[in-house]
Amino acid sequence: MKHLQVAVGIIRNASKEIFLAQRSASSHMANMWEFPGGKIEADESAAEALKRELLEETGIEVTAAEPFEIADHTYDDLRVTLHFFIVEGWNGEPYGREGQPMRWVPQAQLVAAEFPPANIPIVSRLLAEINR
Ligand SMILES: Nc1nc2c([nH]c(=O)n2[C@H]2C[C@H](O)[C@@H](COP(=O)(O)OP(=O)(O)OP(=O)(O)O)O2)c(=O)[nH]1
Ligand SMILES: [Mg+2]
């Protein structure tokens, strides 16, 4: 089975809002909301891929990112290992640079069902941490 390594950025501002983007209608996990990110290339570390993908997809230059969790998930015919980072430092203002819809959501108001199934434990952890 195909196995992807993916770098994912949980972009969080000083008001504890998180930047979400909507996946395109033609992609895997179509129309679901996601944390921006993408495939780690063979010559890259997860942190390097994160910086490249967030620049490509949201226009920001990441200046501070902390590893948050590594999550493995198998979809019908695709295995993904997602390397999640909390991103709290950047230059610029994130936007949907590839034309994708985006929105800022208070961390406490994230809804797990809006995300691909692999994200459910991550969203649960973000909700638990903000409500503690
Ligand atoms: N970016 C992102 N991908 C996720 C999340 N959750 C999740 O299961 N995935 C899966 C969907 C895809 O099968 C896989 C790879 O992500 P991607 O489609 O963003 O990869 P990419 O940006 O490199 O895509 P592309 O260049 O082929 O358009 O990770 C998430 O929160 N963010
Ligand atoms: Mg992507």
From TrEMBL:
Transmembrane segments: none annotated. Gene3D superfamilies: Nucleoside Triphosphate Pyrophosphohydrolase (3.90.79.10). Its EC number is 3.6.1.55. Keywords: DNA damage, DNA repair, DNA replication, Hydrolase, Magnesium, Metal-binding, Mutator protein. Mg(2+) binds at residues 37, 57. Its cofactor is Mg(2+). Residues 1-128 form the Nudix hydrolase domain. InterPro entries: Mutator_MutT, MutT-like, MutY_C, Nudix_hydrolase, NUDIX_hydrolase-like_dom_sf, NUDIX_hydrolase_CS, NUDIX_hydrolase_dom. Pfam families: NUDIX_4 (PF14815). It comes from the Bacteria. It is an enzyme of class 3 (hydrolase). PANTHER family: 8-OXO-DGTP DIPHOSPHATASE (PTHR47707), NUDIX HYDROLASE FAMILY PROTEIN (PTHR47707:SF1). This is 8-oxo-dGTP diphosphatase. The gene is mutT.
